Amino acid sequence: MVAARTGLPVVVKGVLRPEDALRCTQAGAGAVWVSNHGGRQLDRTASTAACLPDVVAAVGDQAEVYVDGGIRTGLDVVAALALGARAVFLGRSPLLALLDGVVGVGRLHRELLALTVETLRLAGCRTPGDAPGLAAAERTTPR
Length: 143
Ligand SMILES: Cc1cc2nc3c(=O)[nH]c(=O)nc-3n(C[C@H](O)[C@H](O)[C@H](O)COP(=O)(O)O)c2cc1C
Hints:
Layout: H1 2-6, E1 11-15, H2 18-26, E2 31-34, H3 48-59, E3 64-68, H4 74-82, E4 87-89, H5 92-97, H6 101-123, H7 132-135
Parallel strand pairs: 1-2, 2-3, 3-4
Helix pairs in contact: 2-3, 4-6
Flavin mononucleotide (FMN) binds next to helix 5.
């Protein structure tokens, strides 16, 4: 209804269940954003990486799927994209980077992009879609 009334694309953030994602797209959402809000609401809530594949499967090509939660490294980015996310978002990292102002946030994004490209190179993949195995990889770097 919001999408129809405003003509604006609606993105629903905080979706974890495939059936909820489906209801969002049926209600006109242009995208669903798999997020547990950084785990700040409820300890032991489901991880977004675990929820993402089922949401992607449910939504199909009806809408875009985004994800956030614990994205810190290039491997995190590649894994999320390999699991079917169209885009990843960052929460705490840019907040902390803001200590150095807009310059710090710009540096963070450039470094994460470089790490993402390096991950693809090390994996011998041209795109995250070529690297589905990385999505299941154990975390190799400390947070
Ligand atoms: C200080 C802080 C405040 C936040 N406030 C909100 C909020 O008001 N609404 C919301 O949807 N998510 C909120 N979030 C969650 C972020 O939008 C985002 O989903 C989350 O931080 C992503 O995980 P990450 O921090 O591990 O990257 C907040 C996160 C932080 C760290």
